[in-house]
Specification:
The complex is a heterodimer of chains A (406) and B (316). Chain A has 406 residues and is of the alpha+beta class. Chain A has a single domain (58-347), classed as Cytochrome-c3 Hydrogenase, chain B (Orthogonal Bundle). Chain A is built from 18 helices and ten strands. In chain A, the strands form four sheets. In chain A, strands 1-2-3 form a three-stranded antiparallel β-sheet. A three-stranded antiparallel β-sheet of chain A has the order 6-7-8. In chain A, strands 4-5 form a two-stranded antiparallel sheet. Chain B is mainly α and 316 residues long. In chain B, α1 crosses α3, α1 (2-32) crosses α10 (219-244) and α4 (97-117) packs antiparallel against α5 (122-147). Classes of the chains: A alpha+beta (406), B mainly alpha (316). Chains A and B meet through β1, α5, α6 and α8 of A and α5, α9 and α12 of B.
Chain lengths: 406, 316
């Protein structure tokens, strides 16, 4: 009898704590990510982040393809920032091959890049609105975003996967009548962006965003947070300014890096809204100063690809979500030995834990949206063995062996 | 006996109008967001579709409570909606029926809460606690605003007495006395929370706790709960429109107006009040957090309701 009572004493169940599964399927999530949140009433005590629900093995696939095929493959890492991925990849390949694209091609790349930033930021601003229950703001932002998508369709032929980049240049030119059209659309977008800025000043919106998901300057630096998330915490970093690529070298003085010091969800949202205006101005400058010339190399892409020697390099761009990094190692025989993609979300997702702990359940979706996560970008193979409680990363050889078994 | 027959006969009318009101609400909400929106009779389609779906009861649920709750909720809220309509048509005044209607309204919310907590889902439990907090916040000012009616001479807590007084005075109750204007404002402020509309839909926040109490419900059970919600929204709008703003009373020769026209006028006013208190806020506001909503209700509507009681006692 005494033994039993001792056993009962040892098991301490804290009934005030509740562990709730946030995801992988949840109305606030557009892509699967799993947060296991421990709460007491509404307060968050602990967060456990789990990735890996949409792993597609793109890095492994890239090793079995030639460079041009891989170009289309990396475009499919993500739908929103597809141009960032292709730019990053082509830059790396061009650096290895010593190819210099024409000025006009670089400017056009930058143009699409900035348009993509506008459309990505509008998307996430809408989602922030949706997550705080402001459906009208969500509808409005996505309505404005259609304008950019229509421009993409006119310029490149595709609304989402633009396939604009190619080794040594771009695939589509910008004729004068389209320049006019872009200008007209930009005017509309600017007007709407001003309106969106006003709506975000609304009292109920401010109440939901201010002092929520705070990530201090020091934490942001320690965790190597990138992009608008870092700039919202006052960390001055922007690949466009620090390591200029494409046409940003020439446009260095034509844009400023938006910095906010609020460190909360509202600051991150503010950074994105201000960047909309920066991007609009930058696009106008590009349209005014668009140099003449050809947009791609005279030789065919396949010929260029065959001439690319063995080599390796790291290429960086500032995607809408932050610093995107590609490590490319070519084998000199049209193909790749290794492709490593470090997406901004992978860096930013670490910031979620300090942001969420101490907050309320109601803050989870909006904090998650404020780092603009792209889960499809960020997934790598990790096997979590729940029974033994161990985490191991499966290498490529192991994967191949498993593949052969089937 | 006649009253009971009339009450049963009103059930289909209430069913029809509450779902129709929901359809109009959804359509106007969509138009304000630059969307086309669903057809006005979409809630009827939804109801029929959901009713023909499979019944699923989760393993973790206390199945008895889980399945009984939607039926009780729907029955209670339709009854709550039918009582004022019947009393208005037949012109009978039952002492204290306003208290009964408010009780039935609260009952349907409580039923949905219990259903959520019996589902065994942690989100249901969070929905329960949030709804509980919200009910404490808005039920008290709402009850006081209705109770303040009885502090005035010649008013009582019988629904038809209040309507009859307005007919006699040929004026809208909210405009007769200052205390009644304050009471009307309190009641209208409490409607969005009672109707679970943004900014006060905290207990069923879709993006936060996946509809809270409703999370495990599907098929016929969900259809009944949706009906219950539509019926209580209808009741709230109808009460606001007839208790404080009985428009037919403004017309000369009320008797010659005819009951049909008077009822139509009431329905139109209640539709307008529903649009003002439910559709517009849910289009132009973001959802508040539970603490913020609680603070709002205990700061403004509660003070207003106290003020209305005080003014009534003074005789304004």
């Amino acid at each position: 009898m005494t033994d039993k009572s001792d056993d009962a004493k040892e098991i301490k169940v804290d009934y005030t704590r509740l562990r709730i599964p946030f995801g992988p399927v949840h109305p606030a999530l557009k892509e699967p990510i799993s947060l296991r949140v421990t709460v007491r009433k509404e307060e968050i005590l602990d967060v456990d982040i789990r990735l890996g629900h949409v792993h597609r093995g793109i890095e492994a696939l890239a090793e079995n393809r030639n460079l041009v095929q891989t170009l289309y493959l990396v475009e499919r890492i993500c739908g929103i920032c597809c141009h960032s991925h292709t730019t990053c990849f082509t830059q790396a390949v061009e650096e290895i091959g010593g190819i210099k694209p024409s000025e006009r091609a670089l400017y056009l790349r930058t143009l699409i890049f900035e348009l993509e930033r506008i459309h990505s930021h509008l998307l996430i601003l809408g989602l922030v609105g949706y997550d705080i229950g402001f459906e009208t703001l969500f509808m409005f932002c996505w309505h404005v975003r259609e304008e950019v998508l229509d421009l993409f369709e006119e310029i490149t032929g595709n609304r989402v996967h633009h396939a604009m980049n190619t080794i040594g240049g771009v695939r589509w030119d910008l004729p004068p009548h389209l320049i006019e059209k872009v200008n007209v659309s930009l005017k509309k977008i600017e007007k709407s962006a001003k309106y969106i800025y006003d709506v975000f000043q609304d009292k109920t919106v401010e109440k939901r965003l201010c002092e929520v998901g705070v990530l201090s300057y020091n934490e942001a630096q320690e965790l190597c947070i990138v992009g608008p998330t870092a700039r919202g915490s006052g960390v001055s970093m922007d690949v466009r300014r620090d390591y200029p690529y494409a046409a940003y070298k020439e446009l260095k003085d034509r844009f400023s890096v938006v910095l906010k010091y609020g460190a909360d969800t509202y600051a991150r949202t503010e950074v994105r809204i201000s960047e909309l205006f920066e991007s609009i101005n930058l696009i106008r400058t590009i349209l005014d100063e668009l140099p003449n010339g050809s947009i791609s190399m005279e030789e065919s892409v396949l010929k260029l690809m065959r001439e690319i020697p063995e080599g390796e390099t790291v290429s960086m761009v500032e995607a809408p979500r932050g610093e995107l990094l590609h490590f490319v190692k070519t084998d000199g025989k049209e193909g790749l030995r290794r492709l490593k993609v470090r997406t901004p979300t992978l860096a930013n997702i670490l910031g979620l834990k300090p942001m969420l702990i101490g907050g309320e359940i109601a803050d989870i979706p909006v904090t998650l949206a404020s780092i603009d996560p792209c889960i499809g970008c960020a997934n790598r193979i990790t096997v979590v063995d729940e029974d033994q409680g161990e985490v191991r990363v499966i290498g490529l050889e192991d994967l191949r062996r498993r593949g052969r078994k089937r | 006996m006649n009253t009971i027959v009339a009450l049963l006969a009103t059930f289909p009318i209430v069913f029809f109008f509450s779902l129709l009101f929901e359809g109009i609400d959804r359509k106007i909400h969509a138009r304000m967001q630059k969307r086309i929106g669903p057809p006005i009779i979409q809630p009827f389609y939804d109801f029929i579709k959901l009713f023909n779906k499979e019944r699923i009861v989760p393993v973790t649920a206390a199945s008895g409570i889980f399945t009984a709750v939607p039926i009780i909720a729907a029955a209670v809220s339709i009854l709550g909606a039918a009582i004022p309509v019947v009393n208005l048509i037949t012109g009978t005044s039952i002492v204290g029926d306003l208290i009964l209607v408010l009780y039935l309204l609260a009952m349907s919310s409580v039923m949905v809460m219990i259903g959520g907590s019996s589902s065994g889902n942690p989100y249901g439990a969070i929905g329960f606690s949030r709804k509980m907090t919200m009910m404490i916040a808005y039920e008290i000012p709402m009850l006081i605003s209705i109770a303040s009616l009885s502090f005035n001479p010649c008013f009582s807590l019988a629904y038809y007495d209040v309507v009859a007084t307005q007919i006699r005075m040929k004026s809208l109750l909210a405009f007769t006395r200052l205390s009644m204007a304050v009471a009307a404002a309190t009641f209208l402020l409490c409607v969005p929370a009672a109707a679970d509309a943004v900014p006060f839909d905290i207990s069923e926040a879709k993006t936060e706790i996946i509809h809270g109490s409703l999370i495990e419900y599907g098929g016929p059970y969900l259809a009944l709960i949706k009906l219950a919600k539509a019926a209580s929204n209808f009741t709230l709008a109808f009460l606001a429109a007839t208790l404080f703003f009985y428009v037919p009373a403004l017309f000369e020769g009320y008797v010659s107006l005819g009951l049909g026209v008077a009822l139509c006028l009431c329905l139109v006013t209640s539709l307008i009040f529903m649009l003002l208190t439910t559709t517009v806020p849910r289009t132009i506001f973001a959802r508040l957090k539970i603490g913020q909503a609680f603070k709002f209700y205990w700061l403004i509507p509660l003070t207003l309701s106290m003020l209305s009681v005080a003014l009534s006692i003074v005789g304004l």
